[in-house]
Specification:
The complex is a heterodimer of chains A (329) and B (322).
Chain A: E1 4-14, H1 19-25, E2 31-42, E3 47-51, H2 58-65, E4 73-78, E5 81-82, H3 83-88, H4 92-96, E6 99-102, H5 116-126, H6 133-146, H7 163-175, E7 181-185, H8 193-210, E8 213-218, H9 221-227, E9 230-235, E10 238-244, H10 245-250, H11 255-262, H12 302-306, E11 312-314, E12 317-319, H13 322-325
Parallel strand pairs in A: 3-8, 3-9, 6-7, 7-8
Antiparallel strand pairs in A: 1-2, 1-4, 4-5, 9-10, 10-12, 11-12
Helix pairs in contact in A: 5-6, 5-7, 6-7, 7-8
Chain B: E1 5-16, E2 19-31, E3 36-40, H1 47-55, E4 63-71, E5 74-75, H2 81-90, E6 92-95, H3 109-120, H4 125-138, H5 144-147, H6 157-169, E7 175-179, H7 187-204, E8 207-211, H8 215-221, E9 224-229, E10 232-238, H9 239-244, H10 249-256, H11 296-300, E11 306-308, E12 311-313, H12 317-321
Parallel strand pairs in B: 3-8, 3-9, 6-7, 7-8
Antiparallel strand pairs in B: 1-2, 1-4, 4-5, 9-10, 10-12, 11-12
Helix pairs in contact in B: 3-4, 4-6, 6-7
The chains are: A alpha/beta (329), B alpha/beta (322).
Amino acid sequence: MSLIEVHELSKRFEVSAPWLNRVLERRPRRFVHAVDGVSFAIERGKTLALVGESGCGKSTLARLLVGLYEPSAGSLHFDGQDTRAVLAGPKAASLRRRMQMIFQDPYASLNPRWKVADIVAEPLREHGLIKDDAGVRRRVGELLVSVGLAAADADKFPHQFSGGQRQRISIARALATAPEFLVCDEPTSALDVSVQAQVLNLMKDLQRERGLSILFISHNLAVVRHVADQVGVMYLGQLVELADRQPLFAAPRHPYTRMLLDAIPDVAMSGRSRTPVQGEVPNPLSPPSGCGFHPRCPYADPRCKEHRPSLQEFKGIRVACHAVIEGRV
Amino acid sequence: MKPLLEVRKLCVEIPTRHGTLLALDGIDIEIARGEVLGVVGESGAGKSLTGSAIIGLLDPPCRIAGGEILLDGKRIDQLPDKEMRRIRGKRIGAIFQDPLTSLNPLYTVGRQLVETITTHLALTPAQARRRAIELLEQTGIPAAAERIDQYPHQFSGGMRQRVVIALALAAEPQLIVADEPTTALDVSIQAQIISLLKTLCHERGAAVMLVTHDMGVIAETCDRVAVMYAGRIVEIGPVADIIHRPAHPYTAGLMGAIPAVDQDRDRLLQIDGAMPRLNAIPSGCAYHPRCAKAFERCKGERPELMSAGSVRAACWLHEERQ
């Protein structure tokens, strides 16, 4: 059984004008569908990576998964339990202990006035995992060593570390409760490439040692190729393609996935010609009718403008595209 | 032919309470007309500082401590503010990373363009407006005649960066300094902006200095690349040579650390450690504590740029081979 099962998960945010304006100017209530009917599963010890451009809803999805947002619709199961019900009940803490999150910006996610020892020990104390101070200190030292820092670093403050080292502290904090599931929201996009390589290698090692399941969010397809077992491509709050890493990079199906892969600058200078795609991500407040990608899609036909395609099986992967299913691509 | 921009032995220092830090230490760069020079390095290497020094926009207390900057054979690093302001915009255009902060949110896009054009060119306001619309069209903004009267917040990130490019090109500058022009943009938009910048500069024969940390962008755009580390250039040469046959161990490490999108690797090459802080730059070659190939000489003596095949690299490994 999969560790995480997400079914038709949605989150909408209200962006209406204030009540008085709505009444006087007869404006309707407005919603933005940040995540719109997304389904997937993550196996134990595996990594699912979500890619997409800014505003596609990937960070909202991450926050839904760890319970920082309440879903508007759909269900979310962790190890067979409905997380929504559990988080509202008395066993919420024991569930939270099993999933942790690593944030994008290591400069903003660590309290600058706390010592590293307190930052990493906070989850241990919060969940009452270790009661005595000497024990906490020992455990903090072990955690710091496991992410490649020194136990003596516990007495320093975050500003004494570089960006990559701070992200290691965030990882140590996330690992403190020995979680089974980690949500990483762009963990390396604020880091330089050489430091990014250190952090990605570390995360792979930790995953292997501890059998972690990871949801990895990124806009960088090259990073995704390096870490993921399975890849989901998001566009305007919806999953448009979900496939294992190999088929996704070898034979991308959805026109948006192809476009993303095409848009990556070619470091190897192989002379691969690149077709810059026209257009931009539409405003999520007024998404296009039918398939959200049709205004930018070279294969769009009248059906794409009217009917929104659903994610369906196609030659071993899952894709939401009329053109692919009908064999027009 | 003489290069358009010559930077010779440029040093920039930052006075602090604990003494003066040398942020740039003897930078030598030349850019010819119509050439795109890429400047890469990790954060803190001094690449943006080099760009700011050239356009004369160093934030105090940073100051030029030595060396000279020549544009078309004339020194521009000692000009009074007033004269420098005339050169900036007219002969040197600048594009910065964040398109939202480089535009004034209170003025329409058109007003900002017209102001730039009339400051530098002898045109009437009506002519300047026509020229502004042309510029917006050239940078690929649809319905430019209508959008010219809109405010920056009504444009998306990619469209804003096009406006910033239009502003930089408004007075047909000979040199464009672009500091991370695509870093704040999504990949699909990045590709559009890079190819736009390349075509426009090619058509006008402008020289470009492109500062970025993204090797992919460099590979696609540049003719030559300078790799910076701890305030110095450690390698400089034609882009294909640097990418395929890096001569400096740091460049090799940087290339190996980039995850590839068309092959599977279990582990990325990693450079251990981090860029040194300015107050603790190691003796000898600044890279030696992180370098796998370092030997005794690297710790004591600092290598200068020396010829290493088709490129120039600051590394003692290449002296032995000569």
